[in-house]
Model the fold of this input.
Amino acid sequence: MPQFFQDLIKTNKVKVDPSKDRTWLDERRKKMDAGWAEDYYTAKAEKERQSWLNDSLWSGNQPLQFTFENWVPAMQENDEQARNIGNQAWVMADRVIKGEQFNILMNGEPGTGKTSLALAIAWKAWQEAEMNFLFISTMELVSMFSQRFDDQEVAWRLDDLQKRAKNAPILILDDFGTEGGMKNEHGYYKPVRKDMQEWLYQVANARYDQITNSHKGVTIVTTNNASGELMQMYNPKLISRVITKRRPNVLNFDGLDDMRG
Ligand SMILES: Nc1ncnc2c1ncn2[C@@H]1O[C@H](COP(=O)(O)OP(=O)(O)OP(=O)(O)O)[C@@H](O)[C@H]1O
Ligand SMILES: [Mg+2]
Done:
């Protein structure tokens, strides 16, 4: 008798004669195989998810988590607006889950909850559709660019990160525009360093199909800057590929308070 059947009989404490009862054993084996396949699949998906989280570029190396359950409109004086924004983000998450590929813009003052809702969308998409996301803190990215010539590791990491960013099902570009620094005395921002612009342009270009005018994957940008300001910092070709103007894809946080205070 095959070892497998012997083990099965032993562990299940059942008396079966495999020569007479093959069907029962075959059924049992199929079920166990399915169970193993499921465990294997879950482990593989979890490993994949961890690799996206690990490769993400978090502010201060601190991974963030935020879900729609964590969104509390009552924290805001204008709680109706906060509820409204939460609902709009929820609708966007559902579009992502249904497979729509588009750009999202979250615009507003510091501390109003942009990064939080970007993460809530990504988390819901993972839970309901196992979509992975890559988080890139733009400030961390610019600091990598300033280290890349002194540290070969950083240069390699930037290359890997770019490959991931091009292919991420969901890409979050967080705090886009802060790398532009302060306005000068004439009220203008100076252009962001060329190598970083080029790097981002390649990512944006890979995520956009010019012929069909369609987006590949979902790109979520959070920013404190208006798009006119971003155009002073970046090549307009990059801005038009990542910053959406389509109303249903824009979440405006103006009017909400800074929750960090
Ligand atoms: N409606 C809310 N419910 C629960 N927590 C909130 C809410 N709004 C903001 N917060 C919390 O306030 C803090 C700041 O929010 P968040 O980082 O999302 O703001 P932001 O708009 O991304 O700010 P910045 O422009 O500075 O990046 C976070 O700890 C976040 O969890
Ligand atoms: Mg933020």
Observations:
- The two ends are 72 Å apart (CA to CA).
